[in-house]
Amino acid sequence: MKTIAMKLFGTVRLATGxxxxxxxxxxxxAKAANGFADCELLLEEPHINVGAASxxxxxxxxxxxxxxxxxxxxxxxxxxxxxxxxxxxxxxxK
Length: 94
Fold this sequence. Notes:
The protein is an all-beta fold.
C-alpha cells in the first residue's frame, strides 16, 4: 500500500551530524517514491529552530506526492545532504 499526501503533520528533528539549524518556512526536498519533492516545513511554534530534539511541524507540498509503502518517517534534504528527519503522525490527501 502506497501513501499519497499533500500535507503531513508530525515532528521534525535534525539528522545525525547536522549542526546547522533550520527555521519555519524552510523549503527542503522530501524523499518520495519517485525521487524528490519540493515542500515547505512549517513549525507549530515558528520562533523555535529545528534541533536535535523533535518539534511539532507540518510539511506542505504544492501537489500530491506518493511515498513508498506506509510511510512513518521521511528524510529531508538540503541539496544532496540529508539534514532532517520528519516523523509522520497524520496525512491529508487533498
